[in-house]
Amino acid sequence: MVLKTLLKRLIYISVLTCILCAKTYASERVILIIINVPDDFFSNAPSGSTVKFIHSEGTLTVVGTFNSPDFEIESIKNITVFDAEDRQLALVIDESSIYREFEDEAINSVKFSFEIKEKSLETGPPTLVWGNDISADNSQVEQILLDAGNRDRYRTFNWEQCPADRGLNSQVATLEIVVDDSADIYYLWYLLPMALVFGLLIIRKIFMNKPPAAANRQV
Fold this sequence. Notes:
The protein is of the alpha+beta class. It has a domain at 27-161. The chain is built from three helices and nine strands, in the order H-E-E-E-E-E-E-H-E-E-E-H. The chain has helices at 2-24, 118-123, 192-209; strands at 28-36, 59-66, 79-82, 88-89, 92-99, 109-117, 127-130, 139-141, 154-161. The chain starts with a helix and ends in a 10-residue tail after the last helix.
């Protein structure tokens, strides 16, 4: 019974360790709250960046900077956006906006843009996801250019934490460990050889450390 209890604890510890290690590689996510651009949105744009674009019908161009305190990525490929229907959206990264707190370290702030269908916003807000397990096909430009002639097609964003139950193409798996206390003791016999080896090593150590007996002297 003692051995069974020990085996149970070892199994639980192993599973817990695997879960904690897996969490290290889990991606982070926030909900993007799409809002109208401020009045100075175009006046603050880089000089000479006001150009004419062909906007897709029924889509909006969202431009903004993401710099959450816990945001940290190694590459611009480690960030992406999904709409409410779990469609991945292509990001355009503003190279001039990339900020690293320490040189040659992780990216902590970045400006990007993406196009999203207006109808998908009626379904729900998009989700920003980042982490080492993300590998998105993002493009990169020196600066994101704006089309001042189509102000009504632009939006920017704020963000808020995702609810715990919100996921993207996620599947919930349940791991159940069952140890039958009524199992026959026969299944624990494989531990006997190990115990025997340890016992022999202990006995050998005791005899090796025992001082030799004094030799008999002839009178």
